[in-house]
Structures are given as C-alpha cells and as structure tokens.
Amino acid sequence: EEDEEEEEEDGEDDNETPERLFEECDKDKDGKLTLMEFKDDEDKQQGQQDAVDFAAADLDKDGMLSLEELKVKMKKNDEKDEKDEKDEKDEKDEKDTAKDTATDTAKDEKHEQK
User: Fold this and answer.
1) Which residues contact 13 (CB under 8 A, 6 or more apart)?
2) How many other C-beta atoms can be found within 10 angstroms of the C-beta atom of residue 94?
3) I want to staple 65 with a disulfide (CB 3.0 to 4.6 A). Which of 33, 35, 37, 75 is the partner?
4) CB count, 10 Å around CB of 54?
5) Distance CA 54, CA 62 (A)
6) Neighbours of 63 (CB within 10 A)
C-alpha cells in the first residue's frame, strides 16, 4: 500500500511504456523529442537533472531523442532502480542481522550471569 502511495506522489507510473511516454512528450509529433519536450518545466531543479539525463540518453548526439534512445534510457533507469532496491533490501537485512546478533549476545550474556 505504501508503494502505491509513493508512486502516486512522485507521479510516476511503473506501467509507462517507452512508446506511451514518447507519444505523450512528442508535442509536435515529429518522431523526435527535444529537451523542451522531454523536461519537466514545473520543477527547476528536476529540469536541470532532466537536461543531464537527456544529454546522456542522446546517443547519437543530434540534440534530440528517438524512441530507441528513450527505450535505452528507460531500460537503464529500470535496471538502476532494481539495483537500488536490492541494495536497500540487502542493507536492511544486514542491519536486521546485526541487531538480532546483538540481541542474542545480550541474552546469552545475561543468561550466563544467572
């Protein structure tokens, strides 16, 4: 339930296909995305990140994104998100294990004192 709320808050849809996103962004329907079509104008800080992301995704450096370039970018983002989620889970698991170990050690020490 929390994950659904987070998705709604950040406005992202995990079911967004590259084709659908491309169609939504390609305002002039020329089959290419300009930076202006790509970026989020409402958030200046995000807009700066969008420019960086756009430049990285523009593989042929023509100043526009094709559908194929957008697909590559979205795939890389998905892979990064999956890795980040796994890393967070691993970190939480490590903390939980350390906490359990500390609790068990404290119980053992207390038991030995009796």
Assistant:
1) 7
2) 10
3) 33
4) 22
5) 11
6) 11
- Residue 78's alpha-carbon distances to 11, 66, 82, 83, in angstroms, are 16, 18, 6, 9
Q: Tens digit of pLDDT for each residue in 7-38?
A: 444 445 557 899 999 999 999 999 999 999 98
Residues 59 and 53: beta-carbon distance below 8 Å: no
Which of the 8 DSSP states describes residue 102? H
Q: Looking at the predicted structure, is the pLDDT value of residue 2 above 80?
A: no
Give the C-alpha separation, 36 to 57, whole Å.
14
Helix, strand and coil percent figures for the chain, each rounded to 5: 70, 0, 25
Q: Report how far residue 98's alpha carbon sits from residue 37's, in angstroms, rounded to the nearest whole number.
A: 48
Collapsed DSSP state (helix, strand, coil) of residue 11: coil
**Tens digit of each residue's pLDDT (9 = 90 or more) over 71-104:** 999 999 999 999 999 999 999 888 888 777 777 7
